Amino acid sequence: MSLKLGVPSKGRLMEKTFQWFADRGVTLRKSGSDREYAGAVDGIDGVELVLLSAGEIPRELETGRIHLGVTGSDLVRERLSAWDQQVDEVARMGFGGADLIIAVPQAWIDVETLDDLDAVAAAFRAHHGFRLRIATKYHRLVREFLRDNGVADYQLIDSQGATEGTIRNGTAEAVADITSTGETLRANGLKILSDGMIHSSQATLFRGRRRNWTDAQRATFKALVAKLTA
Ligand SMILES: Nc1ncnc2c1ncn2[C@@H]1O[C@H](COP(=O)(O)OP(=O)(O)OP(=O)(O)O)[C@@H](O)[C@H]1O
Ligand SMILES: O=P(O)(O)OC[C@H]1O[C@H](OP(=O)(O)OP(=O)(O)O)[C@H](O)[C@@H]1O
After folding, report:
1. Interface confidence (ipTM) of the complex
2. Ligand 1 centre from 75 Cα, in Å?
3. pTM for this prediction
4. Into which CATH architecture does domain 98-200 fall?
5. Is the CB of 53 within 6 Å of ligand 1?
6. Among 40, 66, 181, 214, which residue's CB has the most CB atoms within a 10 Å radius?
């Protein structure tokens, strides 16, 4: 059986992933039409390309349905519990960079740090009778980060998109989201807490730690890594 490599099927990560492999002598391409999620690999034998949503790749690595996968380091940490026991990093790829941060309205002039947020959260609850709301799609990472930093008086509101808009819409008081240029934060009148950096993400090639690989798959993996990291 071949070694299965999962890469993002569309969007910002797909093209740069294809380019990264091409620069190292391995050609990945979609076979068939643009909507068909099958692919082909040239430049090395025994590797099969599987096109998947970036968000699904962590789980596919965990279950062993793919052996290698490219996705954001944020998504692996968010989607897998004890991620470093499920996957190994093979290569940080140097693109797809984005920071997962906590931001609050610029108008909150007394709130610059997590300690300030904690104080505001306690006052907020006393005043409103419910906990300050933080909108995010990164539930695991945000909970762990706030727990480790002693912030407890909050609730998470699930937001799968347009997260920065939740404050204007009155459904959250703060957000935890990805930023790259910072434009979305600025446009929504938000500022990042000075110690509010949760994770600095980039596209990364991961290997699943399930070790039920055949000898042929191991040999292919060795040859591929030699090419990619030469
Ligand atoms: N400006 C940005 N905004 C959002 N994500 C970004 C940005 N820059 C890089 N990324 C990274 O891209 C990855 C998310 O990619 P994408 O949205 O295509 O995946 P997805 O969640 O699987 O989406 P979908 O479910 O729509 O396929 C994350 O690792 C994220 O950190
Ligand atoms: O710092 P910036 O360069 O402004 O980028 C950050 C924005 O990009 C992402 O949204 P995306 O475009 O993925 O849409 P989404 O709101 O559906 O997640 C992210 O959720 C932020 O909203």
Report:
1. 0.93
2. 8
3. 0.95
4. 3-Layer(aba) Sandwich (3.40)
5. yes
6. 66
